[in-house]
């Protein structure tokens, strides 16, 4: 029997990058995957690719920074599959900005997506799990930026720090319902998010010289999306049955040093 046979998994932002790698892995392991994302074209393409793997995939157009959208998405997931076993809070946005010139509007947009979006998804999914007596798992995709400061991204660093605390707090309150909550904290992973202001940061001299050449990343390379997806699936699986409220770095050793 496959690890996630007959289980339903929601992946927010699951049409691209780490989210899509995670959706593919869950589908290959027998899960019914529901992708919640903003971009209908990406969603349709992701579902077509998942269908080849199996598991009746569904895309629900959702802006997770909108509470009504989140509610509708979760109702649609329950209607499609009957229950929800796993939620992966993966959707996020990133841009570079100088703190002194940050705008309230953009700061709020980042918090509405990373913090409030994960809060709404977790709350409504946890209630659905409890209503169906499902002992499920929630995995929050954070970042090493949640506990290390990166220049020009206070909004993102602060939001990921809040997400880590949401992981701990929800792990504490939901344990009594048999729901486990954990997180992963990726370092540099090659995805769309590596392209900042039109430049792929992994192709820049500063990345190649400092992070790779000088082994600031001890493994001297960026990570692959599948290396993050594997840890997400592990945390969502029964093999992680006694792990509660922790966030695992997946960063080639980057956050162990300074
Ligand atoms: N790539 C990296 O180096 C890296 C490092 C650390 C953490 N992460 C985290 O990994 C996760 C996935 O990022 P990625 O690198 O795969 O990038 P990505 O841009 O491919 O994935 C983010 C996804 O979230 C979706 N999204 C954004 N805002 C949304 C909203 N309001 N509603 C619904 N969907 C929304 C995007 O459309 C996209 O599909 C994010 O949480 C990110 O912070 C990535």
From TrEMBL:
Question: What's in the keyword line of the UniProt record?
Answer: Oxidoreductase
UniProt cross-references to Pfam families, sorted A to Z: adh_short_C2
Does Disulfide bond count among this protein's keywords?
no
Enzyme Commission number(s) from the entry: 1.1.1.-
Q: What class of enzyme is it?
A: oxidoreductase
GO MF term (any one) = oxidoreductase activity
- Does Membrane appear among the keywords? no
In what residue span(s) does the Ketoreductase domain sit?
A: 7-187
In terms of SMART domains, this protein maps to: PKS_KR
Q: Which domain of life is it from?
A: Bacteria
The name this protein carries in UniProt is SDR family NAD(P)-dependent oxidoreductase
Q: Which organism is it from?
A: Cohnella soli
């Amino acid at each position: 029997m496959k690890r996630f046979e007959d289980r339903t998994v929601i992946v927010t932002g699951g049409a691209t990058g780490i989210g899509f790698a995670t959706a593919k892995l869950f589908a290959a392991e027998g899960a019914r995957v529901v992708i919640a994302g903003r971009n209908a074209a990406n969603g349709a393409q992701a579902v077509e690719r998942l269908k080849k793997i199996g598991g009746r995939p569904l895309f629900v157009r959702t802006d997770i920074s909108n509470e009504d959208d989140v509610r509708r998405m979760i109702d649609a997931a329950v209607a499609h599959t009957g229950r929800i076993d796993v939620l992966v809070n993966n959707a996020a946005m990133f841009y570079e900005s100088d703190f002194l010139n940050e705008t309230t509007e953009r700061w709020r947009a980042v918090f509405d997506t990373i913090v409030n979006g994960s809060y709404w998804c977790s709350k409504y999914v946890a209630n659905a799990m409890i209503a169906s007596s499902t002992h499920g798992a929630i995995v929050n995709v954070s970042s090493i930026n949640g506990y290390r400061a990166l220049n020009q991204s206070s909004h993102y660093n602060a939001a990921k720090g809040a997400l880590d605390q949401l992981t701990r707090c929800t792990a504490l309150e939901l344990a009594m319902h048999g729901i486990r909550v954990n997180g992963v904290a990726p370092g540099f992973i090659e995805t769309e998010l590596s392209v900042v202001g039109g430049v792929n940061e992994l192709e820049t001299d500063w990345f190649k010289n400092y992070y790779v050449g000088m082994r600031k990343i001890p493994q001297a390379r960026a990570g692959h999306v599948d290396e993050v997806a594997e840890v997400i699936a592990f945390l969502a699986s029964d093999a992680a049955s006694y792990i509660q409220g922790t966030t695992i770095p997946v960063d080639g050793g980057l956050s162990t040093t300074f």
